[in-house]
Amino acid sequence: MEIEKYKKIAKIIVVLIVFLLLIVFFILPKASDYKESGIGKNEEGISTDTPFDASNYDNGKLVQDYLNPTDDEIGAITQRYGVDNYVFNEQGLYVYAVNDDEENRLYTDVWPDTAFTNMVLKPDLDMYLIEVGQTYLVINLEKVTEKELKQYIKSIEDDFSRELYSRHSETLYRAVNEKNIIVDIQYYPNTSTAYIRYDYQNY
Q1: DSSP, residue by residue, 4-70
Q2: What is the pLDDT of residue 44?
Q3: Burial class (CB in 10 A: 0-12, 13-18, 19+), 72
Q4: Are the C-beta atoms of residues 79 and 62 closer than 8 Å to each other?
Q5: Between residues 121 and 28, which one has the greater pLDDT?
Q6: What is the mean pLDDT of the chain?
Q7: What are phi and psi of 81, to 5 degrees?
């Protein structure tokens, strides 16, 4: 009888150990994943229950409004650039260069007032994202037609009168002006997007 009693106790102990192992290795990790993913949270700017990822909504635009970023977007920016490598100011997101091949640069979706942007003609088009470095300016455009881009080219071609060769088939116009500013305009008809890039190596 004593042996049977010990066998029952041993079975109970084994069941308890298996139960504890299940909790430690399966249930707790799942609960942790659920919490970290943010499932069930009402995320700002998102109308679904999909976990927030600032780089995955509105066609991959990292920040929806550069003059008014959300806490989640600031978190995504911090993850990408580091805590001390950026600042939001009255014009948008200013990122400091951390490598020799980078420049300090401003990201915004509102035409900024900088020395470089004052040297070129602002396009009267839907500007999706503007990036201003120390020697360059990139204007990303959405929902744009080739006709609209050609109208913009017409408005700048007197200043950028010396056309340059481009090996890219998407290039509509590439030229340089007397201040050694190069403009390169590329158009992607499949997505109705384009970009206008100005480079000024002597800036």
Answers
A1: HHHHHHHHHHHHHHHHHHHIIIIIHHHHHHHHHHTTT---TT--SSSPP-GGGSTTT-S-S-TTS--
A2: 35
A3: middle
A4: no
A5: 121
A6: 79
A7: -110, -15
pTM of the predicted model as reported, rounded to 2 decimal places:
0.68
Q: Which two tokens mark 68?
A: 């008014």
* Dihedral sign (CA 45, 50, 53, 57): negative
Burial 8-29 (b: 16+ CB within 10 A, else e): eeeeeeeeeeeeeeeeeeeeee
> Which two tokens mark 162?
């010396």
Structure tokens at 132: 């201003």
Spatial separation of the C-alpha atoms in residues 14 and 12, rounded to whole Å: 5
Do β-strands 181-188 and 193-200 pair in parallel, antiparallel, or remain unpaired? antiparallel
Span 90-99, pLDDT tens digits: 999 999 998 8
Kindly give the pairing relationship between strand 127-132 and strand 136-141.
antiparallel
